[in-house]
Hints:
- It is built from 10 helices and 9 strands.
- It is α/β, with parallel strands linked by helices and 255 residues long.
- It folds into 2 domains: 2-171, HUPs (Rossmann fold, 3-Layer(aba) Sandwich); 184-244, 2-Layer Sandwich (Pantoate--beta-alanine Ligase, Chain: A,domain 2).
- A 6-stranded parallel β-sheet has the order 1-4-3-2-5-6, with helices on both faces. The chain has a 3-stranded antiparallel β-sheet with strand order 7-8-9.
- It is globular and about 55 Å long.
- The protein binds pantoate (PAF).
- The site of pantoate has 10 residues, from strand 2 and helix 6.
Amino acid sequence: MRVVRTIADLRAELASARAGSIGLVPTMGAFHEGHVSLFRAARAECDTVVVSLFVNPAQFGAGEDLARYPRDEAGDRRLAEQARVDVLFAPAAEELYPPGYQTWVEVEELSRPLEGVHRPGHFRGVATVCLKLFTIVRPNRAYFGQKDAQQVAVVRQMLRDLHLELELRVLPTVRDADGLALSSRNAYLSEEERERARALPRALATRDPARARALLDGLEVEYVEVADFDPRVLAAAVRVGSTRLIDNVTLEGDE
Ligand code: PAF
């Protein structure tokens, strides 16, 4: 696996790969089995697999966890290598946002509800960095997790609106044995908080907003709502201590 830090080096690295298919897995690192499931799918479906590792400052609001977001590049390299990733693209912030940077992508309607209410500007950062990565890597397929259902909806809309020719592949949420969806942010939870966080998957499993809300009694609930994405989901965001967790279950299609 090659680790590449600059856009120029990545383009050079991929020049000879363009005859075959390229799969991109955009990530912010701190890999867990959820990421690895995306790497494996990309490995099975593409000739060349590129994973981007970039904690995107543009999608964090003031007062959010950008500074303390888990970072473990050595561990990430090992996991990516084991999953037979070809290229790990790990640029510095200035490589993607050089001084004077001023262009942003806004997917207007889909960015507004749910996460958009609680994290204003978040999806502008996500859409912008995804478009940048799509433009730099020019993948045939890009891999995302269903855990971030609204992110998937935003990226899908951007692909449609901007006529981008790439296939969006969405993989199911990977859960721990106790039901908690894998997330890099789970690392913030103490044992006691983790115990309380288990209410989130239990609540969503009811597939009923009113029952879910009742089961979340005692946690700080930001939203529990049915969202008309493709597929429809029951989505929720809660705070357990200082940790914000999101999760969703699909309401049709897979169960
Ligand atoms: O889901 C994530 O990890 C991020 O939002 C993404 C898609 C890598 C963009 O920074």
